[in-house]
Amino acid sequence: SPSDEISTTKNIKMKLSLLFTFLAAVSAFTTGPKASKSTTALNMAKYKSALQYVPCITLDQLPAPGSATSGVAGGLAVCIAVDQSGSVYALGDKCPPINQPLSFGKVADGCISDPVLGTKFDLKTGEVVGKWCPGGIGAIIGGAFSPEGVPVFPVKQSKGAIEVQVDVNAKFNFEANFWSGVLDAQGKADGKYY
Predict the structure, then answer these.
(1) Model-wide pTM > 0.90
(2) How far apart are CA 87 and CA 65, in angstroms?
(3) What per-residue string of b and e applies to 110-141 under the rule 16 or more CB within 10 Å gives b?
(4) From residue 62, how far is each of 18, 72, 118 by CA, in Å?
């Protein structure tokens, strides 16, 4: 009947408008400016890179085989993962493309899985293994981004702790470009505390 056709057409239009609204919201919050590769003085590191082993977690915080936990090393969020054989790995704790914690993922077959979007990352290289953002909402969100791995860090056990080798000046270089002036949060024009 004509009223059923009108109702079906309205239902389809409503579903399509909801889908397009959702896609617009996802793209609005997941896209951002690309990092500049400029070598001008404004973007140059102020502190020389300094790789050092720094404590990340204590041995009693080490997760059971097949799982992971989070820690901080040199100001960087780090995922400490233990495979089924007991080998320990350190990876960046932010899963691309939306930066949820990798440390919530499951460890199996030499990989750790993104807990939300399902992407698997190799424990040794950090590279994507298999399909990028394979399931559920990942299929929608992942299609907007190129596959990207996570950083890996050398790791060792020392003095009752798991130590991770990181650039201890990375945080200083990141913060060195913060603006400081008359209206800075500290209240002084030179950026110093009172």
Answers:
(1) no
(2) 8
(3) bbbbbebbbbbbbbeebebbeebbeeeebeeb
(4) 45, 13, 24
Residue 131 · residue 139 · CB < 8 Å: no
Q: Under DSSP, is residue 152 helix (H, G, I), strand (E, B) or coil? A: strand
CB 18 within 8 A of CB 26: no
In which element (H, E) is residue 101 found? strand 100-101
The residue-averaged pLDDT of 111-115 equals 92
CA distance 148 to 129: 10
In contact, 114 and 91? CB cutoff 8 Å:
no
Distance CA 151, CA 49 (A): 16
| Residue 65 CB coordination number (10 Å) | 14
Convert the pLDDT of each residue in 58-112 to its tens digit.
999 999 999 999 999 988 899 999 999 999 999 999 988 888 899 999 999 999 9
What's the CA gap between 62 and 83, in Å, rounded? 12
Q: How far is CA 115 from the centre of its chain?
A: 12
Gap between the Cα atoms of 103 and 61, Å rounded: 13
Dihedral of the CA atoms 117, 118, 119, 125 (nearest 10)? 120
